[in-house]
Amino acid sequence: MPKFLSIYVIITCCTLQSFAQNDAIVQEGELGISVGVAQYFGDLNNRNDFKQSKPALGLFFRKQFGNYVALRLSGHYAEVGYADAFSQIEFQERRNLNFRSEIWEMSVQGDFNFFEFLPGNPYYAFTPYITLGIGTFNYDPYTYLDGEKYYLRKLGTEGQGNPLYPDRKPYSNQAFSFPLGMGIKYNLGKNINLAFEVSHRFTSTDYLDDVSMTYAGENAFPRQVNGKNNPAYLLQDRSYETGYRIGDAGKQRGFSEQKDQFLFAELAISISFSSYKCAKPNTP
Q1: How many whole angstroms separate alpha carbon 108 and alpha carbon 131?
Q2: Cα distance between residue 77 and residue 95, in whole Å
Q3: DSSP states of 103-158 as a string?
Q4: Are 103 and 139 contacting, i.e. CB atoms less than 8 angstroms apart?
Q5: Torsion sign, CA atoms 44, 49, 50, 51
């Protein structure tokens, strides 16, 4: 019996020591980079098709608060774009608009692990997680006409800043984003983590694609400026490239009741930072 008791005491002490060592490790945070694709959804891609995905790059710092909750600060660069030519809807095929835009985003997000995550411990090396937060991003939609690049916001393609439409003000090239996503994270080694995340961005703008309201009409734009074709006149209604013009003043051009959105699908790698608690001294 004493021999069995001794073995039991030894196993118990080793187990407690193991837990004490885990408790002594404090996960401070992670620094990482991500690479993936960005996908736009909006007036041109109103059926949420996954076409014309473009590159996205990210840099982030995650501050841990325990093994389940973290606060993340991240920055992203991405490209988005789409064209009516990809639609099978007759109106969009005739409308014939397209755009591209660069996006620069900064966001603050809360990350919530489903499982305890302890880098360096093989028993706690994997967890799914969810993330949500708020951010701000810069965008500036553009397109090409006869091989020349034009930024659409400056042209006021829906009558913004035009005397005929005093209620239509030029839109800002900055907006808010609201990330909501899910991911999985795996610890490859003591300090290296690999993650895959898909996060949707709801936004506060309907002009990511420069399409929102109704056509301003031909009379809102002079056909020529300084003896040259006016790009605003040609780009506000490109249906002439597919047949007769459909952009009569007041006719629907976009759907202003729904804001534009975009999505990131990314693979990330990060380095974990840990510290150690000092054991409390024994007191008599």
Answers
A1: 10
A2: 29
A3: EEEEEEEEEEESS---TT-GGG-EEEEEEEEEEEEE---EEEETTEEEEHHHHTTT
A4: yes
A5: negative
d(CA 42, CA 210): 10
Token pair 């490109």 is found at: 238
Q: What's the CA gap between 69 and 133, in Å, rounded?
A: 13
Query: What is the biggest distance separating any 2 CA atoms in the chain, rounded to whole angstroms?
Result: 106
Query: What is the amino acid identity at position 24?
Result: A
* Tens digit of each residue's pLDDT (9 = 90 or more) over 65-122: 988 999 999 999 999 999 999 999 999 999 999 999 999 999 999 999 999 988 888 8
d(CA 281, CA 74): 40
Distance, CA of 156 to CA of 220 (rounded, Å): 10
> What one-letter code names the amino acid at 110?
G
Contact of 206 with 176, CB cutoff 8 Å: no
